[in-house]
Amino acid sequence: MQHSKNKMKKLENKVAIVTGAGSGIGREIAKLFASEGSSVLATDIDPSRLEALEKEALEQKLHIKTLLCDMSKEKDIEKMLDHAVKNFGTLDILVNNAGIMDNFEPVAEVDDRLWERVMNVNVTGPFRAMRGAVKIFLSKGSGNIINISSLGGINGARAGAAYTTSKHAITGLTKNTGYMYSKSGIRCNAIAPGAVETNIAETIDFSKVTSLVKDRIMAGMPLNPRNGKTEEIAKVALFLASEDSSFINGEVLVVDGGWNAY
Question: I want to staple 105 with a disulfide (CB 3.0 to 4.6 A). Which of 13, 45, 160, 169 is the partner?
Answer without folding.
Answer: 160
